[in-house]
UniProtKB/TrEMBL annotation:
NAD(P)-binding domain segment(s): 7-189
Record protein name field: NAD(P)H-binding protein
Lineage: Bacteria, Bacillati, Bacillota, Bacilli, Bacillales
Amino acid sequence: MKILILGAAGQISSMLTNELRNKTDHSIVLYARNGLKRLTTIYDSREVIFDGDFKDKDKLIDAMKDVDLVYINDMGDDVSTKTIIDTMHNAGVRRVIAASVLGIYDEVPGAFGEWNKRMIGGSPRMRSQIESARMLENSNLDYTLLRLTWLYNQGGNTKYLITQKGEPFKGAQVTRQAVTQLIMDIIEEKSAKYHQTSLGVGEPGTDWAKPSFY
């Protein structure tokens, strides 16, 4: 499999790259702004770096050549999301996993939902996340949308809890390590169970009024 990681310099993208390197034989295309300065390859036979912006359609077309799956690390700019979706259609790439945020459907209940709204609810970035998710869900692509709760790092903690679209969101926090594990599990899933799904991603046992680190 050939996997394109858009936003490859991000923390989750970096963890995902290392997991793909160490646990699979998949080819990896790393795409980021100033990517040639910020990223390095380890296995030149199966890794390539593209230096580009999400709005650069020509560069995206080049990066998507023979790609089987795209991972989008950030959907906080809906203009970029539209360009990526259009380019996937043009390149004939159907499978995409995209990281979004909790609250895009007003699906977070209780005190935590109120806290989350105060923190990010009315921001321009949140409006872009909502529009990006809407475009992806209407794209006819084989998408998996990940609505991530508040993120932190904890080595070895790969526990995640999934809720489906239409269900109340669960979990005030989740590790980037757990999100990386989930993405790996989705990539390696042979069936279509994750296709055209929107998954809430939290950590079991963290149904609190706010994350522990706030």
